[in-house]
Amino acid sequence: MVYVSTRGEAPAKRFTEILLEGLAADGGLYVPESYPKADLKAWRALSYRDLAFVILSRFIDDVPDLRQLVDRSYTKAAFGSDDITPLTMLEPGLHILGLSNGPTLAFKDLAMQLLGNLFEQVLTQKGESLNILGATSGDTGSAAEYAMRGKQGIQVFMLSPHGRMSAFQRAQMFSLQDPNIHNLSVKGVFDDCQDVVKMVNADAAFKAKYRIGAVNSINWARIAAQVVYYFKGYFAATKSDSEPVSFAVPSGNFGNIYAGYVAREMGLPVRKLILASNENNVLDEFFRTGKYRVRKTAAATSSPSMDISKASNFERYAFDLLERDGKALARRWRNLESSSEVDLSLVPRVGFASGRSTHVDRFATICTVHAKYGVTIDPHTADGLKVGLAHREAGVPLICMETALPATFAETIREALGGDPARPAGFEKLEERPQRFKLIDADAEAVKRVIAAACM
Q1: Which domain holds residue 311?
Q2: What does pTM read for this prediction?
Q3: Most buried in the list 163, 200, 229, 422, measured by CB within 10 Å?
């Protein structure tokens, strides 16, 4: 498998080369030269680990011990069962795919557990080290840090928006005392964190000297790992390989739903990919109007992991919309930097639907699902379910993607339902543990100084 940049000017590379690189040298994102094709009949009866291996091997063909890596990443001990992503039926034709049973109770674990093992193995083989620089609105940071803690040759520098995560998310990250984990709390919003990461990556000399890598969903390994559970959810909800389904996906950075798009390109019978935005509805606006219009800042909401105004993975989808013309995309993205808008309204957008969920909507959905089905869901999953139901079609199973366990957002659940959500064993009094972080300005040079000092 060969990977190319969305902006068309960086050289094509193999997987192990892009794994450690993050952004391409031309500022683009790596995508496969072509999408592999699925064998639904052969894959239907496979376990999660077997399915993960057969799919990932289509994207990763230069890691010799991939089978062992997959088996180490997806274990009953890490995810609570061998099923890894159990499907819950709320009623016939309406399901929630459980993606939040990993170490940090969020769907990002499904990619990060694999990514941590991939990083460690490839670095050991190369005799190299890596400084991972990432930005998080909540879930990515803790999942990455728990996957990378104690890994040889790896340091993690994670930027998060100061005061914009839930108390649980903040404690998950800041309570880690591992010397290779560095939490940087940024005076700003998530988009500021993401911009700083991109600016540091744009300094080619610094990036090379300090071996800067990425764990955000700009890293293709994250996308590939997420493709797996779309197939797993499909097989669990259907009986035949020709039956279509729709997926409802809460999305802020376009990574999770883009993985569903890749699964469909591989041949998964997806009727609709239903994108749910919160009040920061940049992506919903695009699918309704064809105009991708970023905002100067993201509003703070009760589904904070989607408080994003610039979706970093959207560039990958736009690359395909523009028939993989890297020059055309680069030209539009240069205009995006100056005008904050890209007009793709004349380009056909097929197979997507979208909608917006507000604070009132998500509270109502949490209450309704609890009363009607006896199930408690987190606010982001509520956004997905609300928008998904608005686009539900008779006779087409709807699978709503869970994003986190309710315990991660206890304040919101308490306000909606009047009581605390169940908290899994091992997370008791998490917020009372000592926390370690560094408060910094949204400044790339400040981040570079922290990285340089840690590497002395």
Answers
A1: 81-102+220-417
A2: 0.92
A3: 229
**Is 1 inside any structural domain?**
no
Rg (CA), the chain: 20
Nearest Cα to 181, choosing from 147, 214, 207, 213?
147
Residue 296: its pLDDT value, please? 83
Which CATH number fits the domain that encloses residue 396?
3.40.50.1100
Q: For residue 233, is it within any domain?
A: yes
Q: What angle do CA 288, 291, 294 make, to 5 degrees?
A: 110
156: its two tokens: 């993690």
Could you give the CA distance from residue 364 to residue 384 in angstroms, rounded to a whole number? 13
SS3 of residue 130 by DSSP: strand
In whole angstroms, give the CA distance from residue 117 to residue 67: 12
Of the listed 76, 108, 239, 438, which one is catalytic?
A: 108
- Two tokens, residue 174: 């800041």
Rounded to 10°, the helix 220-237/109-126 angle is 140
pLDDT at 22: 76
Indicate if 187 belongs to the active site: no
Q: Specify whether the CB–CB gap between 183 and 173 falls below 8 A.
A: yes
Number of folded domains in the chain? 1
pLDDT of residue 359: 96
- The three-state secondary structure class of 89 is strand
User: In this structure, what is the dihedral angle of CA atoms 31, 14, 117, 454, given to the nearest 10 degrees?
Assistant: -90
Residues of the chain with pLDDT under 70: none
Is 32 inside any structural domain? no
Assigned token pair, 224:
């590939």
How far apart CA 282 and CA 262 sit, in angstroms, is 21
pLDDT digits 0-9 by tens, 373-404: 999 999 999 999 999 999 999 999 999 999 99
Task: Report how far residue 186's alpha carbon sits from residue 443's, in angstroms, rounded to the nearest whole number.
Answer: 9
DSSP letters, 21-37, are T-S-TTS--EEESSPPP
CA 257 to CA 99: how far, in whole Å?
14
pLDDT of residue 232: 98
Q: And the tokens for 284?
A: 């919903």
Q: What are phi and psi of 154, to 5 degrees?
A: -125, 130
Which distant-in-sequence residues (6+ apart) come within 8 Å of 170 by Cβ? 160, 435
CA distance 84 to 43: 16
Contact 156, 134 (CB under 8 A): yes
Q: Output the six-digit token pair for 195.
A: 């911009």
Q: CA nearest 105: which of 426, 434, 397, 449?
A: 426
Contact, 192 vs 161, CB < 8 A?
yes
- Closest by CA to 362, choosing from 283, 272, 290, 279, is 279
58 in any annotated domain: no
Could you tell me if 17 and 49 are in contact, meaning their C-beta atoms sit under 8 angstroms apart?
no
d(CA 195, CA 256): 20
